[in-house]
Amino acid sequence: MIKRDFYLNRMIHNMWNSEVKVITGIRRCGKSVLLFDLFYEYLLSQGVQEDHIIKIELDQRRYYKFRNPITLCEYVETLVTEQKDEKFYLFIDEVQLTTRVIDKVNGGIEVSIYDMLNELKAYKNLDVYVTGSNSKGLSKDIATEFRGRATQIHVFPLSFKEFYSHVGGDERKALDTYMLYGGMPRLLALKDEKDKKDHLSSLYTELYIKDIVERNGIEREDILNDILDFLASQISSLTNPANIANALTSIKNEKVNSTLVSNYVQHIMDSFLVSMAKRYDVKGKTYFKYPNKYYYTDIGLRNARLNYRQYDPGHIMENLIYNELVHRGYSVDVGVVTDRTGGANVQKEIDFIVNDADKKIYIQSAFQMDTEKKESSELASLILTKDFFKKIIVRMDIPHNFYDDNGIFHCHLIDLLLGRVELF
After folding, report:
1. In what side-by-side order are the strands of the sheet with 53-57?
2. CA–CA separation, 415 vs 424, rounded Å?
3. Which residue of 215, 327, 344, 394 sits 20 to 30 Å from the alpha carbon of 320, by its own alpha carbon?
4. CA 215 distance to own-chain centroid
5. What string of DSSP letters covers 222-250?
6. C-alpha distances out from residue 225 to 106, 203, 255, Å
């Protein structure tokens, strides 16, 4: 079992902070293992008694009754009020499976899991942890639903560093495997390539698509699938709902509404399958509304979506870098800088503007820079910023890391992913 110390330490740090700890992430990425195994074992190692850890797994049949938030709340209250002088921990798995109910005892008002958790966290002897696989089910604004008293810990599939800590061996060979199959934890137990592919495909058919369709009342599942295919084929490319709608209109020989596409894209993002990076004007210090870039949360799921037909290492590398940056907790945008040389106004792209509080760096992804034209193209946008923030080009074709004459740092992708490069 991989320890996932990054997330475990965040949970330990936030113990007893008077807030609900909300652990989010795509289904099957390891949230339940983090809470019910790793954190549970940590608590036991600290002397917490097993019967003081209340575990409710809402996707298990024996816990279905607790999908009613009032029933859940009353059950937990009974336990914690009987022993007020002792500390309890509440673990709730897949909290988005709860329903809204009418509280007939208290005026017939509608009650949600948020109301009940806000009530439970008022108990001084109870520390509350919940997991969820859908941002809509948890609310896009967790702080609002929990009245500003929630700590969100977002869990991603295995990073390359986590993956490599398990598989070991030749780093480049491990990276090639990771770039193909990604970091869904279950894959580590599968040795046969067909089993790995079947597992990733089944996640789509048995979990993700069903979840999106059922939770959002999707009527055109065919269009949802077409959008997933389109986004998978267009990772690291600029697009918007109108462009997607036009492409689908051409493919399907029927008019596809851009508003419908926009809604479906949002549902896909709410399920944590895909995330969006906005474009930011470096000089104008403003965001563009469209177009944006979309990245798959797990590159293996992206490749499986396309049945491994579109293996483009340059785009996959960019997706991996984006995932690594957001996994570390940074705010990541796509940069735009205007080249006004010779009176022209040509927009050039910086793959990533990475922000950490008041610090900022620029990162360019370049699978290889084997010609002067390619090198000039990759360097140009970074040089155009004309500022003193750190600038990095991540590459796959260099034997060692170095600074060039422009003060730009060239580093190997493996060194970045394994944490051997200090970004800030």
Report:
1. 53-57, 88-93, 126-132, 20-24, 150-154
2. 15
3. 215
4. 19
5. HHHHHHHHHHHHTTTSEE-HHHHHHHHHH
6. 44, 14, 16
Let me know the angle formed at the C-alpha of 305 by 29 and 263, rounded to the nearest 5 degrees.
Answer: 80
Beta bridge partner(s), residue 322: none
Best CA proximity match to 363, nearest among 352, 355, 376: 352
Looking from the CA of 178 toward its CB, the CA atoms found within 13 Å total 30
Model pTM score: 0.93
What's the residue count for the chain? 424
Separation of alpha carbons 277 and 330, rounded Å: 12
Cα separation, 381 vs 373, in Å, equals 13
Neighbours of 39 (CB within 10 A): 23
